[in-house]
Amino acid sequence: MAVDSQISSAPQSGMRDFLPREVRLRDWATAIITATYEQFGFTKIETPCLENIALLKRGDGGENLQLIFEVLKRGEKLDRVLGSIKDSENNGGESRHSKSLKEVRQDLSDMGLRFDLTVPLVRFYSHNQQNLPSPFKSIQIGSVWRAESAQQGRFRQFTQCDIDIFGVKSELAEIELLQATSEALVKLGFEGFTICINDRRMLSSLARYCGFEEERFESVFIALDKLDKIGLDGVGHELAGQGHKEEAIANLRSLLVTMAEATGTSEQQLETLAGKIAADSAVSQALKNIMSVVMKNADGRFNVQFEPSLVRGMGYYTGPIFEIKYPGYNYSVAGGGRYDKMVGKMSGRDVPACGFSIGFERIIGILMDEGFEPPAAMERVALIFDENRDQLPDVMAAAANLRARGMAVVVQSKKKDMRKQIDQLPAQGIAKLCLFKGDVENLEIKPL
Amino acid sequence: MAVDSQISSAPQSGMRDFLPREVRLRDWATAIITATYEQFGFTKIETPCLENIALLKRGDGGENLQLIFEVLKRGEKLDRVLGSIKDSENNGGESRHSKSLKEVRQDLSDMGLRFDLTVPLVRFYSHNQQNLPSPFKSIQIGSVWRAESAQQGRFRQFTQCDIDIFGVKSELAEIELLQATSEALVKLGFEGFTICINDRRMLSSLARYCGFEEERFESVFIALDKLDKIGLDGVGHELAGQGHKEEAIANLRSLLVTMAEATGTSEQQLETLAGKIAADSAVSQALKNIMSVVMKNADGRFNVQFEPSLVRGMGYYTGPIFEIKYPGYNYSVAGGGRYDKMVGKMSGRDVPACGFSIGFERIIGILMDEGFEPPAAMERVALIFDENRDQLPDVMAAAANLRARGMAVVVQSKKKDMRKQIDQLPAQGIAKLCLFKGDVENLEIKPL
């Protein structure tokens, strides 16, 4: 037999095969999350996995733009691109059609695999707006792809799980996103997590108060975003290295120290800071409203906390931003915020937008760490028969009877070593056994 | 505002956005199919969407190999490939490292999007066999991609829905596949469909009996596969054009005419043909067993029919093959068969294998043609409040009360034209309305 031994049967680097047990957990979590979001009035949509490469590369995606899996053009289109190289070389690069290798490189692909669900959602909304209700509340659960370093154990295909609200200017949007997401986490068995909240406009007021240059705020935020990892000294060092004013850095440090030492409720801390940095009172009031309504709903199951140094990586946020932390894990299990300018960039007309994303792989990872087993939807029974007796019609009738009684039936012919065969059943989630003895109606079912 | 007006907001050619209503139908169908297959003892697995390009291109995929979306190599690997073009050109193609553009073309990608779920499944089984039960019965529901001509209205991303059984030599496998799939179709509301059955080995006996050359059987089958579309004359013409013996073609024609005119049950027809063409009696006996057990289970809801000209496109089938036809549609809604040699090609050790695939997009298309609406999981209620009154905390408490009563709640602030706002609710699947009047507990819910 000709064997393609040179092709490994392993999945591609950074990608995963899911065996039945893991799919069961993932599907269970997906069903819980979906049902919860539906209770909050969200509805599920789907977009294609491939998008226009120009759309994906347009910006706003931060470092993800470097991680796009690009799809090669096909047929004549590809021939034309490759042909242009030849032209270039033959003409010493001076032909009218000639292209540098760098240009050719950029010309090889026309589509890419989506790296998140937000860029496709904004395209979807721009395209389908006239067929969607306003406000529009979407659920998206789907795969995204990033060419991450697989050596560091990062996944190159993983599931994202987003809800978004388009068309709501008020903090009703933030409140619903936070309530729905925290409710979903509680239903998945998570308790004691903390919702951290800040606002991009608060961050701007803070940077302004400290005396950073207005046009360099973004780099201040990027440094501040690392506070968790590199500490206050690290942030100060990074800002100094970028040539920010020493006085501004010192102001930021002292402000952060003051905030870290502050006592009182989140609302009080927010009020103190807002007053100090002269933040827009409408901004701080909305943030207070969000926190108080969500806190009211928490009922001791989780916390809500104002976090003045919270930044969130993406550049597209324009208002409140939020993140959920789970004790014992140093990464966030959910994150999101308001991005009112993104639809306008696509369609020419701004539409208020706000989203929250559960870190699905992180949630699944924690559930697996905790040894969690989702409840079985159906009882699984093995129906074992002696193949030599040629009783297939009767065996199938017996299986149908068991199914009619609500069981999932695994029909197996008796193996030589039946003891071993039975010992292997529990690993398949099978807890009961029925040995077929020829009678279709009277079936004796025993626990293993 | 800077608008990227040059980037269309439409999905890429041949790909689709799914709005909430269509997702609801697709998810409903998926849930029905999955639950049915689970009752038959199958369990769900998942593989990555990207596979090694060498694996995908290895063969067995027929014309699908021409339709693979290939993923561009990244970073240094890509630079090296593009660099080799320069080498080639500078050295007049004689450098040791030089490559023709055709070679470069083949070297540009390292992965591809899967074009079906069978090739990845065989890789999955080869890789994970030691962690899987034997026999192993899998469910796969997932997207596949093919660079089909979008002009002809073909989808370039679509869902496949497969069940497969590994490790069962006997016709128990075929029977379970056919029973599970027909049961799923019945539960989706399909009745009166016909399961057509044949066997690749019967086809070989038939070609041998007619006098075709043994080594050219495959081309006979490819022509015969078109019988539905081009008729008996067309098949004869195609075979003649390929230089097959006139006498063999005449024999085939007369045999097919005889079969088409034959009366009696499928089992009788099978017996007559098997006798005439001297088919292996074990083969025809197994086929008869399959038909009779599945027929017994049909209970008037569908038909089972021996179809001596059924071929199925893929070259990898080795035994029984089957297809399901639904009245009024000229394409099959499900297809599959036995492929005992495919695992061996990957792992070096043959494992009996058999699969059946529901044409998910076709099923959904028919359900939409028929105007089918899946039952709603939850009642959707609109909770409308007057935003000016700043009652967000109470409104959210009211919404929580409605959710606790099992409803899906869509909270909306009152628009200026409330009549229009209410008129738009039914299109969102909302049948009931609750106008918030300040009382969190006493909520009046009215039908629209």
Rg of chain A is 28 Å
Largest interface: A-B, 116 and 116 residues
Low-confidence stretches of chain A: none
In the CATH scheme, the class of the domain at 191-325 in chain A would be Alpha Beta
Architecture overview:
Two copies of one chain form a homodimer. The model of chain A has no long low-confidence stretch (mean pLDDT 91). The relative contact order of chain A is 0.11. Helix content of chain A is 42%, strand content 19%. Chain A has 448 residues and is an alpha/beta fold. Among the domains of chain A are: 74-105, no CATH class; 191-325, Bira Bifunctional Protein, Domain 2 (BirA Bifunctional Protein, domain 2), CATH 3.30.930.10; 380-447, Rossmann fold (3-Layer(aba) Sandwich). Chain A has an eight-stranded mixed beta sheet with strand order 1-5-6-11-10-9-7-8. A four-stranded mixed beta sheet of chain A has the order 13-12-14-15, with helices on one face. In chain A, helix 15 (392-404) links the parallel strand 12 (380-385) and strand 13. In chain A, helix 6 packs parallel to helix 12. Chain A has 16 helices and 15 strands. The first copy, chain A, starts with 19 loop residues before the first helix and ends with a strand. At the A-B interface, helix 1, strand 1, strand 2, strand 3 and helix 3 of A face helix 1, strand 1, strand 2, strand 3 and helix 3 of B.
